[in-house]
Design brief:
By secondary structure, the chain is mostly helical. The chain has helices at about 1-25, 30-50, 55-80, 85-100. The radius of gyration is 15 Å and the shape is flat. Keywords: Cell membrane, Membrane, Transmembrane, Transmembrane helix, Transport.
């Protein structure tokens, strides 16, 4: 169950990271409210996951999911560069996330 909570927390982190772009500096009310709600839920779920999972593993996976997801969505939604090198490093990030899960002992 902790892993499910952690993945959901990571996906919500992607949501609030992307949401920051849509808030336009927190000047747009609805995107701002949704972004802050995603932040709160993401942190809350991360906190619940760390009751069982080691903090280093949980935080690393949470940040990794957020960074990977934000980078991929940045490429898809905002036309950010998708160079071969960038894609290769994102692939390594995915391997690191999977590695942390595989070696966590949970």
């Amino acid at each position: 169950m902790a892993w499910i909570l952690l993945v959901l927390a990571g996906l919500l982190e992607v949501g609030w990271a992307i949401g920051l772009k849509y808030t336009e500096g927190f000047t747009r009310p609805l995107p701002s409210v949704l972004t802050v709600a995603s932040m709160v839920l993401s942190m809350g779920l991360l906190g619940l996951a760390t009751k069982t999972l080691p903090i280093g593993t949980a935080y690393g996976v949470w940040v990794g999911i957020g960074a990977l997801g934000a980078a991929v969505l940045g490429m898809l939604l905002f036309k950010e560069p998708a160079t071969p090198a960038r894609l290769a490093f994102l692939g390594m990030m995915l391997v690191a996330i999977i590695g942390l899960k595989a070696t966590s002992g949970h």
